[in-house]
Amino acid sequence: MQSHNTPYVIIIDPTDMTDDEALILYYVLENQARLGVSYFQKNTSYPIPKSYIQNDTDINIGAYNNIKLTHHIIRRSRTRDENQYRYEVFGKPIGSGGYGKIYNVVGTLFPLEDHRLSLKTNKARVIKEMNKRNAESLKRFANQEYNMARRDEELGAKPPVFAHPEPSSKRMHSYMVMRFIPGEELQKIIDRDQENKENVNDIDTDTRIKMSIAAARAMKKVHLNNIVHCDIKSGNVIMDVKSPIIKAKVIDYGGSKDKQCMDSDFIYTGIFAAPEIHAGDLPSQKSDIFSGSWVFNDIWRGDDHPANDLKDKLYMKMNDAKHPMTDKMIKKKKKEINEKILTVSQHCKFKNLFIGINDLEKSHRHSIEQALKKNTNKSLDKRGYFDDLIQVFETISYERLINKIPPVDESDKPLILARDTFIHELKVAHLLGIQLRNKLDKFVKWNYCDITLDDLIEMQSLFLDQSSGVPALSDKPEVISLFVERLQIMTFAGLTSKQAILEKLYGIIDTCVENIKIMASMENQIIELKKRLNQLTHMFERTRVGPTFDEFNLDLKKIENEVQGALKYQKHQLTLEKIESLNIKLAKQIKKINDALLIFNGNLNTKLDDSHNVTFIDACVNTVRSYTLNMGLFSHHESREIPKERHVVRLTLKNYR
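Given the sequence above, the corresponding structure tokens read:
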């Protein structure tokens, strides 16, 4: 044991364990799990189940009776196999809000064949923790969030774990594991920008356009997944402005609903809510479009919602010890705030947009203002869609790019022709990129389907179409860069030639086709092995000699589970990024399963070789016994004393041969 242990207690750091500690921790966690414990708090004593360890291992526990952990741990079932478990190790919170806290996952513990726990740190994950006094309410809320969040594969949400980490408290906690989304909360980016908007423009205009496109596409994806988010705002958008292609992700699905199953149990932020919600109606995707408009107001430096200013002043007065407010005064101020929220929602106007943004043309400002005005119309039917906003910002982006092309001498016809040709090539890249992206978006279904060979062929054909795919483009780097920017596919980021795009495409899709074929072959191999084992079992049962195949059936079942688990990886939202990551996962699974099959076949063949010898020897023993009885050389009683040790008979047979 490590030197930092105290008398009778082993201090275990799950991120840095000896082999013995890794085994002890496994037995402690599993023993507690049998008692219904799924949350393990750091600096808390947990008893060591000495009987298990002494029976199953050669570890000498000595006088140690308990362990303490240096990190928190939760135990969760695997999404692929509910009978297998993983242990997420986490420490201090990295964020908090009205919902609860966010923790960074240090690593994931999983048991090896010898039960020792091993730590994986190759996946960036977080844990969202929430708590409520009403356990049923929390379970309903957390499961609802999981069911909506899991529709976005990039979030990688795992089923929530429920626990009472503080025995003295009646509050139940939920813990949901998700992927870490790179970037920063958009609200924090906006806050920094607002502080400087009178003096300096830290975010250039082209970046603001890209941020707007990314935000609109992220909101559109929520709707493609058949979800009404109910609480779209800058605080619920993660933006990665440092990525080669700026990416955004809408988060916090706690109050979200399936578009077809709306009810009154939803959560929203009042100041950004659409007028129909304030009127008591159920929200719809059109309500999200209204709320989302405030995000674009923030990006383009519009004034904050006027109710926020009233709320800030109220909280300042409430905390003023020298001039305390009466309950009646507070109630009056809150009523004033609510009236302001209602008025703004019914007559929404974004004021003082574009302050300090001096290089945006008047016509482009007008286009943005009109789009936001349309999407905050009091009438739902007159509101637009996120696609409309994407089109507005991409058109502005294209026109700004064209305007940057330097003019040429009007008398130089070859230069004029070259310039016009270049502009036309950029226009083709702009339009074809958008057209292809919209076609690819239709592959993204929230109810994941198997990635089939037909899907892959269709996707590849879209790229290879002579009139609307990559071949229709000019091979100028600027043209390809614009095409890639419009596609919004991270896999192609930085590519500047048609050949590079096609090579990348072929590499991804051809590899996936090959992997799917290999997995199908392995599945067929499992089926044939099961048949073979079944036949062998019946054969040896009839002769009542030879081996049993129970151990092989168990081993084959384990391999079959691995195959089925790998096949589940093929259920994806069909994007090139997902196919690329699927290839990596399938390659690992194929190697693992192939190695297991080789070992299985080797062991089975060895067993059968031995079994055939045994069967032959047993038959010879019976023949000898029968012959001696028929010749009257021994009595029935004496015949039972014939040596039956097979190694003796084998020597005898060898001599006669």
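The first strand starts at residue 9 and ends at 12. Try to locate this feature in the token string yourself.
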